[in-house]
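Researcher: We plan to redesign the surface later, but first we want a full-length starting point. Tokens attached.
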């Protein structure tokens, strides 16, 4: 895929993926369009050599793979891992709040949100609704209001004179979005039923049973900067990696057994049925290598690239970085290293990645957190510790991580796609 087409398609992917459910559905649609066969975990699997397959769990996590050979114990896997979730505000079960003349929504903080960035933004609602039909079936459907229907207004400086000396937001009292004034009749469930009917004309709804809905910013993703060298969008962490991994898998050309895993709940620790700290990936891999000895052999001949955004050196906050490990945007993807195993990179996986990047003439940077600061983590150590696969943690340099609108480099995204595509075609990894 060419550079301009790659980035235009990326922007469309970001806009079509306001929640993990929608991101998974976007990836699913792209795979089906390229001839991948959908598998279902409750069925028996018939896997053919030279086949292309994918499977989802909870509608929010997905594993896709290509099998040029069924002898994966000899070839191993070329794996790319990312996550579908991002920090946000999620509606509480009893979300309707009426106070002081306004209809509002009660929300819960999901993940490490930069809360103040959500103030004064044009917000919409998307997610999954589970309902009972008039025929008695229980089904789930995805919804996306698309229009800006909510806002969390800031407090004027006249009523908070010290705001610029230090700013905090109370998650219980101060982040309730406003939908409309009390002079308008409002019922949340009626609103959700109307949206379902707008999107699914043939759906006969008896009543809503439950929902998983999130707020999101309606401002479109865009290429910005004087020379359009930056990507500005919500959810770059980590839909950017999901998209890059997807395009690399689609262009893998069936050279080696290759796999993309995009899991939910990374931002809250990954411990769920569909998270990286759950059994999803191992369940799939063991079905493809049911003989225990061959499964271990496959893992030891494999490599996982855990792709998750990295912190670029912010020119206004340069002292937050180790000056010798300060990545710059559009200067290449970052190898993330931590001696306490918050990242899974080791010298061998790092060397392999550097060698592959060199084949593409693609620059590589390194990131180590300051020794006096705590280090975050990724799905990398979780996956390495869970299935024993050699793993590297990499990421694209980003400003404003966990803000409602993040900033990354368009050249970095395309370059990583080229490197990961070559990785999926790399027949020989380490020599023992």
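Model: Full-length starting sequence:
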């Amino acid at each position: 895929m060419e550079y301009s087409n790659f980035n235009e398609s990326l922007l469309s992917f970001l806009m079509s993926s306001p929640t993990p459910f929608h991101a998974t559905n976007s990836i699913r649609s792209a795979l089906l369009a390229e001839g991948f066969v959908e598998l279902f975990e409750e069925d028996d699997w018939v896997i053919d050599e030279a086949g292309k397959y994918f499977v989802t769990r909870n509608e929010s996590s997905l594993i896709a793979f290509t099998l040029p050979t069924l002898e994966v114990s000899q070839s191993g896997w070329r794996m790319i891992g990312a996550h579908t979730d991002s920090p946000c505000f999620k509606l509480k079960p009893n979300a309707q709040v009426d106070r002081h003349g306004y209809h509002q929504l009660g929300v819960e903080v999901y993940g490490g949100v930069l809360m103040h960035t959500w103030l004064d933004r044009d917000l919409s609602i998307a997610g999954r609704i589970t309902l009972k039909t008039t025929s008695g079936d229980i089904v789930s459907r995805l919804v996306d209001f698309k229009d800006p229907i909510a806002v969390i207004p800031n407090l004027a400086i006249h009523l908070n004179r010290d705001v610029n000396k230090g700013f905090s937001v109370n998650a219980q009292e101060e982040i309730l979005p406003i939908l409309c004034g009390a002079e308008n009749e409002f019922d949340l469930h009626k609103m959700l039923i109307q949206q379902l009917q707008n999107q699914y004309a043939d759906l006969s709804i008896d009543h809503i049973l439950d929902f998983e809905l999130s707020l999101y910013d309606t401002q479109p993703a865009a290429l910005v900067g004087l020379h359009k060298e930056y990507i500005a969008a919500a959810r770059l962490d980590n839909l950017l990696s999901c998209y890059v991994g997807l395009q690399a898998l689609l262009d893998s050309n069936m050279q080696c057994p290759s796999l993309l895993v995009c899991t939910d709940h990374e931002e809250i620790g990954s411990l769920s049925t569909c998270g990286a700290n759950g059994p999803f990936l191992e369940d799939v891999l063991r079905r493809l290598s049911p003989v225990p000895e061959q499964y271990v052999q496959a893992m030891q001949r494999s490599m996982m690239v855990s792709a998750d955004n990295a912190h670029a050196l912010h020119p206004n906050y340069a002292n937050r970085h180790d000056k010798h490990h300060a990545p710059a945007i559009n200067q290449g993807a970052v190898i993330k290293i931590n001696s306490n195993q918050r990242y899974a990179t080791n010298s061998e996986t790092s060397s392999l990645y550097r060698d592959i990047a060199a084949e593409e003439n693609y620059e590589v940077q390194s990131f180590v957190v300051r020794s006096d600061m705590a280090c975050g983590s990724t799905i990398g150590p979780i996956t390495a510790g869970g299935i024993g696969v050699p793993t590297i943690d990499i990421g694209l340099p980003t400003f404003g991580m966990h803000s409602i609108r993040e900033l990354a480099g368009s050249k970095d995204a395309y370059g990583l796609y080229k490197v990961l595509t070559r990785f999926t075609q790399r027949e020989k990894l380490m020599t023992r």
